[in-house]
Amino acid sequence: MTLPILYSFRRCPYAMRARMALILTSKQCELREILLKDKPDQMLKISSKGTVPVLQFSNKVLDESLDIISWAMESNPSNVHIYSEAEEIFSIELVRLFDTKFKHHLDRYKYSSRYDVEPQEHQQECRVILEALEAKIDPSPWIFGSTVSLLDISILPFIRQYKIANADWFLDQNFTKVIALLNYFESSDLFTQAMQKYDLWDPVKNNGNIFP
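^ that's the sequence the OP posted. Answer follows.
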């Protein structure tokens, strides 16, 4: 059987959450690890956006991480939290917030010189979002209890990027539940497996890896 092909960049939050969805659902693919500064023509031909993740099938291409997650979850895995109706509404709203407003400010906080902005303003905007999240969750250890959810894998990679920008400052903030949730995420087997290092894909050698 020909496996779908996943173009990915290990540190990209969007790619990270797609990889975690594939792990949780045991959906195998051929992983092609790339560099965003050196995107292969093979990927650009099927997705002109030039962003990861891109999942290529024989008859279609998915180049949005949430679409890849939805495809993976069609198998209804038992090891992923099943939302109640209220949880689903809550989750959809939060994922949208993190994919838009949080990501907008995160990029300008991390890459302030690229955007020619003052990083403190954007650091603060992200901080406000995390403080609001702090008031809404009570992780045990994941957001909805003992089982990881799509909300966890969708927003935690972005919170991790925010932490990396200034870890000492981040850990001094008053969103203690968010920090505990992120700490649990970063120590989980799911995170370790998703962040496993692979050699860069070489179009000449065609050295893709079976994942997961």
